[in-house]
Design goal:
Structural class of chain A: alpha+beta
CATH architecture of the largest domain in chain A: Alpha-Beta Complex
Mean pLDDT of chain B: 81
Structural class of chain B: mainly alpha
Oligomer: heterodimer
Number of domains of chain A: 2
Distance between the termini of chain A: 16 Å
Number of strands of chain B: 0
Order of helices and strands of chain A: EHHEHHEEEEHEEEEHHEEHHHE
CATH class of the largest domain in chain A: Alpha Beta
Strand content of chain B: under 5%
Radius of gyration of chain A: 21 Å
Low-confidence stretches of chain A: none
Number of helices of chain B: 3
Helix content of chain B: 55-70%
CATH topology of the largest domain in chain A: Lambda Exonuclease, Chain A
Distance between the termini of chain B: 27 Å
Largest sheet of chain B: none
Shape of chain A: globular
Low-confidence stretches of chain B: none
Radius of gyration of chain B: 16 Å
Chain lengths: ~325, ~70
């Protein structure tokens, strides 16, 4: 049962990924978020960036909870090594659960309950020589060595005494819409409060790299949510960019700011895009925005849209696979 | 010291705390070397046929224990 869609398949739970898709092109939104078509091999950038951000968020959580920084570093390195190892799937169960005849579920004893077999498998292999498994671990170690103990920014401690780390949020917006997302860390830097976010790239980080985040829905939503959730005047997002090269990782820290007026404008625009996508879902008509087809090296569905409507499904099946629909209201 | 490549090839559930510490130490060393300017960026481009030939010759020379300075 999907949490973010109503009985008519209209999405009411929205995160920055789905808002961005609706902003970009309604046909893209349809293929990706309604139909659930995903490339057969997940993007190396998404995998690498996801593991990297998760490792640093865990590190900050461990340290905030009292673990020694060195121990926390070794812990997240060990966790990431395991995350990036592809174990064989257990043939006896599904995700560690066996459903008996009477419909009773019990934990699989063959695999220990997670659906994978220890002692099997191989390391994850990247399809490019910058964002490799080794370079991921290197980047984590180098980042924590550079920004760990001596960092000039600090994790915000909330009024209840808890550190503002790894916070999944759901915010009620207008017309029954719920905005959701995940903030890795809220920090103070130079007397101001920022949401911290990690980004990776293959290229040299210049001012242009940071400029791409304004305007940007993800950064606006983070700032909007940070203010609404914590009741703190959040200035924007601190972006720690990591340039991943074959032989090194170089970090640059940048900021993207949002004032009250910009946030109000973003909110109105986001509501417009969301209601437009909801209308498209009700009408079952998702027009293409052909001006977006060439952006960022070209849309992944461009070669599908360029085919005649009668044969598109065949081409989708050849190059993509249907995954469970992205469900923003399911907490991480 | 254990070769880091061997540690990366091993099932991570079999790695000890010492193994993880070894990996961390290795990457710290490489960061130090990079900061001192003693490591190269590396290339994202695949080697050309000529480069592959040179690499193969270098490998042969290394195996024969002949010391060369580039």
């Amino acid at each position: 049962m999907l949490k973010s869609f109503d009985a008519d398949d209209v999405q009411f739970g929205w995160d920055s990924t789905s808002i961005k898709s609706a902003e970009t092109c309604l046909r893209y939104y349809y293929y990706k978020h309604i139909e659930g078509w995903q490339p057969r091999r997940k993007s190396v950038h998404l995998l690498f960036g996801g593991w990297y951000a998760a490792a640093l968020a865990s590190y900050h959580t461990y340290v905030a909870n009292g673990m020694e920084p060195e121990e926390a570093l070794c812990e997240v390195v060990a966790e990431t090594m395991t995350e990036t190892w592809e174990y064989d799937e257990c043939p006896d169960c599904e995700d560690g659960e066996i459903i008996a005849d009477a419909g009773v579920t019990h934990t699989c004893e063959n695999c220990g309950g997670d659906g994978t077999l220890p002692g099997t498998g191989q390391p994850w292999l990247a399809d490019r020589n910058t964002k490799t498994r080794e370079n991921l671990i290197r980047t984590i170690v180098w980042y924590i060595d550079q920004f760990g103990a001596d960092d000039t920014c600090e994790t915000v401690v909330l009024s209840d005494g808890k550190a503002a780390v790894e916070h999944s949020f759901q915010l009620d917006a207008d017309n029954g819409i719920i905005l959701s997302g995940h903030i890795d860390r809220l920090v103070t830097f130079g007397g101001k409060v920022y949401v911290q976010d990690q980004k990776t790239t293959d290229t040299t980080i210049t001012a242009r790299f940071f400029n791409q985040f304004n305007p940007d829905t993800q950064m606006s939503l983070y700032t909007f949510a940070g203010k609404a959730l914590f009741g703190i005047p959040v200035s924007g997002v601190m972006i720690d960019g990591a340039q991943i090269a074959v032989g090194f990782t170089r970090f640059e820290r940048g900021f993207t700011y949002r004032d009250e007026g910009s946030l109000n404008e973003w909110y109105d625009d986001a509501m417009f895009h969301i209601t437009t996508a909801q209308h498209a879902s009700r009408e079952k008509h998702f027009p293409k925005n052909t001006s977006s087809c060439g952006n960022y090296g070209g849309c992944q569905f461009r070669h599908i849209c360029s085919r005649g409507p009668a044969v598109r499904e065949q081409f989708l099946k050849a190059d993509f696979e249907k995954q469970p629909r992205w469900d923003p209201l399911v907490a991480r | 010291m254990t070769d880091i490549t061997e540690l990366f090839a091993r099932d991570p559930l079999d790695l000890s705390k010492q193994d993880i510490a070894t990996i961390v130490a290795k990457f710290r060393e490489s960061r130090k070397a990079f900061n001192l300017g003693n490591s190269r960026a590396g290339s994202t481009k695949p080697p050309t046929a000529k480069q592959k030939q040179i690499n193969a010759l270098m490998e042969k020379l290394e195996k024969s224990n002949v010391k060369i300075n580039i």
